[in-house]
Amino acid sequence: MRRVLLKTLAAVLVPVALAAAASCLYLRRSLPEIAGTETAAGISAPIDIIRDADAIPHVFAANKADALFGLGYVHAQDRLWQMELQRRIGHGRLSEVLGPAALPQDRFLRTVGFGRAAKTAWASTPAWATQQINAYIAGVNAFIATHHGSALPPEFSLLRFEPDPWTGVDVLVWVKMMAWDLSANYSFELLRHDLVRAVGPERMAQLMPPYATHGLSIVADTGARNPPDLPDPPDPPDLPDPPDLPNLCDPSDPPDLLDLFPVLVQRACPEPLDRRAFCSRLPPRRDGRRPRLEQLGR
Question: What predicted TM-score, i.e. pTM, was given to this entire model?
């Protein structure tokens, strides 16, 4: 009897253990490669990607275009399913992979027209911005072109499709979605508009009074003051003048936020920043090992 029981347990547990091991190996194939060398077309010089103790990637490149390429590559490594889902939300293409249950959402998203707005914005995007976005897109597409099947996040295998190449419109469509998400008060603005037409601005102000003139505010130079019974806040301490920064509000000189990075690094680390030295300064990972270096080569 005992022998029969052991054989029965073995017959059940061994296949379960093998299936669990196979599933683990299959899922690990979709994890990003964080050490070694990968070959990628479209870069002018090798790119080093260093991941710190929290697996946050730090991209070192010879020029701005290659840095943006590396950024796109690591975004696809770590977030390709999130990026694909957000792209489909913006374009109203969820039902293509999720089925008829997502049709109401697609109808709403296409009716609002986030994808159309992104196409219009991309057509009028200045050349300096499209050049940088295209460098980022090239990195995303370099990852997509070399990873298929189980090398992609498991959601693609479950839904039985692979992502299409990325485009500039795909980048901007989520900008439009974020603008929508950050405009959650639109329903109140429409209500205020309807109330003005129905009862006039004075009675509307009684129904929906504005923020108090002397109410607390975290925004400076708005005319709002602290209540009289509260003391004025102390003056901030004197700080050294920061390095010269580009004028971000001058329309004749388009802002390039990547130009700010060397200035910020210089303030935080006055001596020259070398990628090997940077890697050696990082704390060890939680498993006790040093941070890993991945290199993209031509």
Answer: 0.66
Rounded mean pLDDT of the chain?
79
Residue 4 contacts residue 262 (beta carbons within 8 Å): no
For residues 248-275, give the mean pLDDT: 53
